[in-house]
Amino acid sequence: MELLMDGKKNFKDPNNIVIFFVLIFFLIYYLIFRWDSVFWAPLTPTDASHYVEIAVHLTQGEIFQSGGFPFGFPALLALSILIMGPGSFSLQFPIIICLVLCLLVLYLIAKKKIGVLNSLILVFLVGFSPYLLIYKGWVMSEIPFTLVFLFFVFLLDRNYNPYNHTANPFENICIGISVGIGCMIRSVGYVLIPILLITQLIHLFIENDYSKKKLFSLFTPYFVFALIYIPYLIIFRFWGQKYTSHTYGWWQWVYANISGYATCLTVYFPGGNYYWINSLFYTLFVCFLLYSLSVFFRKEYPIIISFFIYLIVITLWPFDQRERFILPVFPIFIYLAIRGIDHIQEVISRCFDHGNLRSRLSKVILPVICVIFIFATLYCDIPLFVNQYHIFGEHQAIIQRDEGNDIFRPYGYLNSLDTNESMELFHYIKGNMEKTSTIAFQFNGYLMMYVGKFTPCGYPITSSRDVELIPIAQKCHSDFIIIHNIDEDAIKILNSDTRYHRVFLNTIYSVYSHNILNSTDNSN
């Protein structure tokens, strides 16, 4: 908020000028390193396509439910597609902007508590986190939700922290808006409601103020949330996800989540194939976090409550999302750890005379950690990512071994969206297929974004291989099936089936028609 109010005064502040250029640096950095989009597919590859499919329908003025996903993130993608046109960049750019804004909000959370220099170090540690470089290339809702979560925590800290009390009615309204937007982006956004409630109860107990004015102020966010979210439910007819990816019992989920979340934070620390570096960073920051919790709970209770309530909820949540669900609290984890490091620096400094060499050296602990962190990312992780990009970017897809089974992973698909091969496919579809044609494809959303309306078929649910798409296409009497050539089993089945004929072929895709008369053969 400070950067948005009193514009001229704030812009002339040297500290704000510095953070402005730091954010510009990260924006350029994220725009340059776009190779990471190769990594979105190790998750369920249809998730991103669901989001894009919903977004494309929104650009056409239609409400379309796909996969039980909330509409908040697709609405953001739809806006970007309308402004920038179809393309992989229009899908990634809003995510990059959200990531840069995450760094800004994190800076605002920390600035008054650990100082400008340490806040900038916090921004660099989070901004250079290896896994964030991967996430910003995924067409997933993690980064936008993290932005909403951090903004929500920022407002909680400003309004309910007695040591940082700057409450005002406008920010109280913004809390309700952030809760509503969080629920619209991800179903786990409902966690913001218990976080808000518990924070308010503690705040009420500390302040011991039960006046009508105070109670009305505390109720305001819920009223604003209802004004936003109830119309959303009515308009979009969205009542939450209707599926689960496994059949585990609840206790099995809890056990899997506890063991998973205890270790998955390590992926956000650098080290690459040098596992000892990764383990060293993770262990150090966990120790600093525990120290910070023991010292600053009363002064940081809105932030700490947000951290722990979120962890508890995702542990009980019946989905095994690991790194995806843990992302929103990773910046909070780093902030609290730095809070601990900063306090340790002060304690060490006070043990020596002011100006003493040891006193001055104690204050470089955090900057040294930051430099090593960034160097480890640049030396250990980025070369690894770039090398994998060259491998997957060249072949566009691989067959990945997973517990003895071949699983199709179309790595680099977002990168291949703008290739000549994809453009050939899209041009062929637009020129040779009727709008009423039923097309079976793993990525309906991307196809619809480029070629316009068509009748999509379903998705494989239990596998991401194209071979699993064939029975679905047959069940819905699909006119055409689009196959990645790397899935040789699917190609073999369709080539041996006299009901299908290949009508299009390039180095990446094959298109098979169920009715030869309706298509022009372009397979040569």
TrEMBL record:
It is a multi-pass membrane protein. Residues 70-228 form the Glycosyltransferase RgtA/B/C/D-like domain. PANTHER family: MANNOSYLTRANSFERASE YKCB-RELATED, MEMBRANE PROTEIN. It comes from Methanospirillum lacunae. It is found in: Cell membrane. It holds the Pfam family PMT_2. InterPro entries: LipidA_mod_glycosyltrf_83 (IPR050297), RgtA/B/C-like (IPR038731). One of its GO terms (biological process) is lipid biosynthetic process. One of its GO terms (cellular component) is plasma membrane. Its main location: membrane. The chain crosses the membrane at residues 15-33, 67-85, 91-109, 116-133, 139-156, 218-238, 250-269, 275-294, 301-319, 325-341, 361-379. This is Glycosyltransferase RgtA/B/C/D-like domain-containing protein.
